[in-house]
Design a protein that fits this description.
Largest sheet: 8 strands, antiparallel
Number of helices: 8
Helix content: 10-25%
Shape: globular
Radius of gyration: 20 Å
Strand order of the largest sheet: 12-11-17-8-9-16-13-14
Order of helices and strands: EHHHEEHEHEHHEEHEEEEEEEEEE
Distance between the termini: 43 Å
Bound molecules: guanosine-5'-diphosphate
Amino acid sequence: MQKIKNIAIIAHVDHGKTTLVDALLRQSGTFNSHEEVKERVMDSNDLERERGITIFSKNASIKYNGYKINIIDTPGHADFGGEVQRILKMVDSVLLLVDAFEGVMPQTKYVLKQALEHGLNPIVVINKIDRPNSDPEEIVNLVFDLFVELGANDVQLEFPVVYTSAKNGYAKKSLKDESDTMKPLFEAILEYVADPSGDIEEDLQMQIMNTEYDEYVGKLGTGRIYNGKISKNEEIVVIKRNGEEKKAKIGRIYTYDGLKRIEVDTAVAGDIVTIAGIDHIDIGETISDKDNVRQLPLIEIDEPTLSMT
Ligand code: GDP
């Protein structure tokens, strides 16, 4: 069985999310970084056309010690409330990335509040510890105060902290540690992020959390497989939000390798995948085994009008 960890990153713009993901990619079993992908995509429009799908994406999948770590980007703004809620439903933890010099910003606060309300236990990553005059320990105290202010529970308040210089490619569990790799952050992810729930032996259930349109392959639906496995060309039933059942056939299935979208023949419970081939697919719908039709609990899809405090 595939070992999977699903996390989202919460970060204020410029606190180093791209640099951090690149550092993790470079030190993992995955090849490409943002820079390399960008270069390759620039001279590979033909390749993209041939594969029939846009290669760029905001998500990444990183291999480490036999695990596949899916990293989902979160928009850090209240305008994306509904999308944030859905992303948080798909993951089992979040990395709260905070600049060691600038500290917590309003935009990160909003998404953190949602994550805590979802019952997720964040891992706090204090980045840019190489910055002169930065005060990582003081920032941790401020993050703690923020958790208290946002109503974190006792378990959430005991958040693990990892200190990083994404730019220089190292992470530390304690500021006194000597480290020249990202290993401590990888280890924290494997240790603290809960394994995805769900049973691979059960019949297929997947929930669509986001849709997009691709000019080559049409409507795409992304979501998490909660039970069973999904296969290319498989006949399934789509359960609409109103309970209506529609027979359909899965076309292609995409997952990630580094920052690249790749096509796979099958995927299993716990994984987050994108499927093509169903033109009427929509957010909140369940993809179910055709002989054992079971709907997943409905998700909130209204964009909430929340004000930032
Ligand atoms: P994002 O907007 O969160 O994706 O941030 P980026 O990864 O693009 O980083 C924003 C800026 O911060 C860039 O100029 C990076 O080089 C810089 N940066 C990222 N990580 C570090 C770090 O660990 N130390 C220092 N000094 N700068 C960093």
